[in-house]
Structure formats: structure tokens, C-alpha cells
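Hi support team,

I'm opening this ticket because the web form for multi-chain structure prediction keeps timing out on my end. I have pasted the exact lines I submitted so you can reproduce it. The total is 746 residues across two entries, so I didn't expect it to be a heavy job. Is there a limit I'm missing, or should I split the entries? Thanks in advance, R.K.
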Amino acid sequence: MVDVVILDAETHHDLRVIEGSGSQFGENIQFAPVLATELRQLVLEYPVLFMKNPETGKFGLVVVLGAKPDENRYLEADRWQSSYIPIHFRRAPFLAVQSASDGSGSGALAIDLEHMRISRDRGTRLFDDARQPGALLAEARRLVSLAMAGVRPTERMIELFVERGLVVPWRGTEIDPGSAASLLYAIDEQALAELEQADLGDLHRGGFLQAAFLVAASRGHLSRFAVPT
Amino acid sequence: MTQRVRHIVVVGGGTAGWLTAGTLAAVSRSQRAEPIAITLVESPNIPIIGVGEGTWPTMRRTLRRMGVRETDFIRSCNATFKQGAKFARWVTGDEQDYYYHPLVLPQGYFETNLGLHWLEGEKQQSFSRSTCPQEEICEAGLAPKLITTAEYDGVANYAYHLDAGAFAEFLKAHCTEKLGVRHVLADMTGVRAAENGDIAAIETAQAGPITGDLFVDCTGFRSLLLGGHFNVPFRSCKHILFIDRALAVQVPYPDPDTPLASHTISTAQGAGWIWDIGLQSRRGTGHVFSSAHTDEGEAEADLRRYIRATGGDDTHLSVRRIDIEPGHRERFWAGNCVAIGLSAGFLEPLEASAILLVEISAQFLAEQMPATREAMEIVADRFNRTFAYRWDRIIDFLKLHYLLSQRTDNDFWIDNRAQASIPDSLKELMQLWQYHPPSDADFDRAVEVFPGASYQYILYGMGFRPECGYDAPSRAAAREADRYFERNRQETRSMVGSLPPNRDLLDKIARHGLQPI
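Hello R.K., no limit was hit. The queue was backed up. Here is the completed structure from your submission:
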């Protein structure tokens, strides 16, 4: 269940957020959504693929965390083993909602009241007694704006890749994606190598050419999931 | 002197004109260093017929080849998915009487012939239900694909229903903006003949004479170039197919969420049948009938009754009448002119063969484009032979639907079964099918308009049974067939369990679009 509301000092003055990591916070997932703006850090440790949203058919960018559904090999008990943790995990339970009138404006900070991190008796308080935001909220605000700022570039990047024929269905065997199998896509390295001058220029201008190579190369990390046969 | 084909003039801007121009331009641009110039001349004063709303799955290839995004097409043309046709009341006329002609081939179509095995024992459900999943998909009102399925890919094979007027506008924009087709708005006033009788130019009121090496006649029923200038005679087939009138009407949905059928519904009437095609924002329906067997008032009353019975409001509808002379030209290519679309001929809307013929004519022309005027004689001869054959097969296939009816409520049906009205070629096939089920091997050409499977769906759907039965299959063959029947049950369950309602998918496409991959 998800119950997203805009954060409000009056209504939510007594809310607390439990910090830390682990499966108790829903972090045991095989795929997590990530942003083009995180690619530089992500590709050092994670395989990055494209995944279709089953509800809209639209492509998103994901990292692969496990060899099978409900598995996160980067997480050992309550500790991440990787040096970079995707914003998706760090911002929880906060997110941004667009003000209803115009989709372009800056988003309001919102919170998912059903999230496993939310509590009224444990964890870090969001507001002090004077109902002023604390340090945790300041960090949340920073992460959510980072996430917001990454949405459009990620969409634009994938659109460009799809338009130029760089995206193909993923046909690997390193992981068992369960029901997500038909939703996974990867960079077509052959097509990337054969791009025409004009397309190279277009991709390069947006800074997306390097991103394409980073995503393609990150696929090598999938080998860490392969079960020796 | 060698006269090379460098400039093609398409005369007429309806569905046929733009599909032809787009196909020729796309193929030529992808294959030639120097593409052939294409000009389309369209009258600003003559409206297009714009009634043809049903297609075949070939349309997916046609649009893809032209470089059209399926999302754009679906959004712009009010288009919906079509997974075949449901024929209601064609056999006995009863309320429960229906069968499907789906677009998916029977299971194991290239390995075995389930027609034989179905007759041997699977008859507790219809042939199409036993051999392919599509009848159940359609009956459940489901789409042929998912929002995650790429453009032009399908979970189940599909074609489209579309708004013909919007389609012509959509193709016009695509052809002129993306494919370099020159568009001239002008009324044709005459033909300037060359010494050898060819068309040297067409004369126009607004743009003067327009010269070309090859002219494509897409002028609709008027057939101004092939029929007019070249005087190629018309061959009527009204003695075989009796339909000669159509009453067409657009019916709004009672509300925007009304479920949307993903098949054409064809309901037999006393002296004809009613088509019912669900587009996104309205239905297109119409009654085609034989004026020798009923009158227009009666036919319109039948149509209004049908509209009310299917949840429509018939009070504010404007009914449009179209006269049909079923038949086609004796030849389709004469001199330096080829006719594509209604100018070549028209039979009746059953089985949506009109737009299909446009596509395969344009494809033939694009792929076998004569390089010179001299080569044109050879290509024209081949074109004429191929399409004479195709028209004959379509006539046979349409007649089959009437031949197998058992209705006796109007002479229309009885006359349709009179031996004199049945082409010899069809009589021969019916004889043949007394001894073995239809298969692709029964037909001459590598590329047939309708595959053997289509004949199976119609024959067994309409209750045809060989008089003395087919030879019994071996046990091994019977076991193989059982595996296909079982596979079909599994596939049907899995598809019906995973496909979304047709309306839901179209709403999602309107919001999110489909991905090209």
C-alpha cells in the first residue's frame, strides 16, 4: 500500500523516520529505478538496463541487484556492500509530487505514510518541538530535488536511444528476472558502434553518447550473478 | 530511344492514392540513389468516398515500411485493433448462430491439417475455438497486445479499423513531409495523349498540364484514366455477388467507456448484411443489400433496428447511400497507366478486401517498378495476370460465405445458392473439399490473397461437412493433432488471462503511446 501526502509541519509534527538499511525496509528487490544523472557512479558497481513499466509501457532505467526476484546481493543483512547507494533507496520514504496545476513547476516534498520507515515512536524526528525541520528533512529535501532533476534527462536520454535504434530486448542468461523477463532491454553495442556521424553528433551534444557507452559497459557486472554450471 | 521511368503521377487523393504514393516513395527512397519523383494530384472539390474502415494485417507492414509510427497512426486515425470478423446469423439466421474468421492461423498449420482432425472428434466446440485462441480473445473483448508490446508487434495477429477520412489526411501529411511526395491541388480537366495512345500529361484547371512517365489512376469509381482515357471495359459480377447498395452511418457511443469490440461484426439480414466497426470515438455501421431483393426503406429500417438493438441511438443519424456496381476492369494496367483502388473495381465490403487490394497492388508496383517504358509492357502483363487471378479468388472467397448459408427467409439467400450464380472455379474447390480439407496446396500461387486457413474457418464455421467424410488419419497423426488441440487450450487460457480489455489498451496508447521496440 502507498499513501502519499504532501508533508506539512502541522499535521506531521510527530512523525519519525527509522534510518538504516535492510529487507525490513523493502530493499530486497531485484531491480531498482535509477536516473541518468547517477550513471557515472552506478556503472562502477551495478549493471544498468532499461525496463518497461508494465502499466504504461514506458522505458525506465534500472540497476540489477539480484540474480532472482526479491533478491538484493548488494545488501548483506542491514548493510549495503556497495559504495554508492541509488537515490531511490536513500530518499525513501520521501518523494516529490508535482503541483497539480502545472506539471513543470517545482515539486512539493511528499511522504509515503504507509512506508515501512514511518513510525511515531521510533527513529529520527522530522520536526523539532518548535515544528522546525530537522537535519534529516534537509537531507531528504536535497535528495528529492536531485531525483526530480534527474527525471527529465533520464526520459530524454532513453527517448534518444530508442529513436536511434540503440535499445534492444535483453536476452542474457546471467539472471532469472521472473515475470520481468519480457520487460528488460539493453544497449545494442553493434548499433552503437555503427552510429552515423549525424547521430553521433546529436547524442554527443546532449552528453548522452558517453552515457550510452557507460550503460553498455556496465552490463559486465551481470557476470557476478551468473551461477557456475 | 529509352524512356526511363523517373516521374510517377498519382491521380486522386483518397485512401488508395495516398497509400500508393507513400508505398512507392518509401520503397524507392530506400532502394535508389536517385528516388523516383512522385506527384499526387488531388481535386480540391471532389470528396473522397471514405467509407472503407477495415483492413488486413498487411497494413502493419505497409505502415511500417512507410516509416509511420504505430502510435501516431492509432492516435490520428481514430484507429482500433481488429482481430478478424464475427459472422452472426449467416448460417441459419438464429440468434445464437455465429462463427469467427480470426486472423491467427490454426495451430500447427504448416505441420498438420487440423480441419481433418477436428471433423474426426473435436466438434464439441467450433473449429476456430478448437484451433486458435482468437475467438475467445474477441468474445472476451480483449486487445491483441499489451502496452509493453512494441509497435506493430502482436501477442495475437491483428489488423486495424480506421477512420478513412482521417487516414487520408494522416497519410497526406506523412507523404508530403517525410517522403518527399509533391502534392498538387487541382481538378483534372482532361488527358493529353501521346502518339502511341499513352498519357503524356493530365490537364488540370489550376496547375496546367502535369506530365509523367507512369500514371496511377486512383480516381475512385469514376476510373477517369483507365476507364475513361483507355476505355478498358468493366466486368460486372453482379450475377455472382448481388450486393449493389450500401447505407452507411456513423453511430456515437452511449458513453466514452463503452467496451470496444476488437473484431468486425457482420450480421446477416434478409437481403444482405450489416457491418459494425468500432472506432475509438464512434462506431461505423452500414447495411449492404441487394436492391433486387429488398428496397431502400426496408433496408434502412433494418439498419435502424440493428443500431437500437446494439445499444445505439438512431434518432439523429444521417444515413449516406452509396451505389455499388460489383465488378472490376478487364485489365488494370493499360499503356502507361495502372488503376489502384475503386478505379480498378469493387465487389462489396465483406472481408475488407478493398484496402488490402490497394496495398498489394502498390506493393507489386513498388517492387517490380519498370525501369523504362519498354519494360512496362512486360510488367503490365504480369500485373494484369496476377490481379485477374486475385480478383477471381476474392470473388470465389466472398461467394463462399453466401453459398454455405442455409437461410431461406428471402430469395436473396436462395438465389445465392443457385448453381448458375457460382463460378466454376469455386464449384471445383467445393468438389475438392469433399475429399480433403482446404490447404494452401489447393491454390496456384505462392502468395494468395486468402490462405487455405481462411477457407477452413469459413467452411467449418458455416457447418460444411464432407458428404462421405475424409479418409481417417493414422494414430500417430491423430496423436499429433491432439497435442495441437491441447496447446491451443493452454495458449487460449494464457492469452485470455494476460491480455487487457481492448478499450483499456487504446486509452493507454492515447496517454502513453507504444514504444517502437
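A quick check on our side: Chain B has a mean pLDDT of 95. Let us know if the file doesn't open in your viewer.
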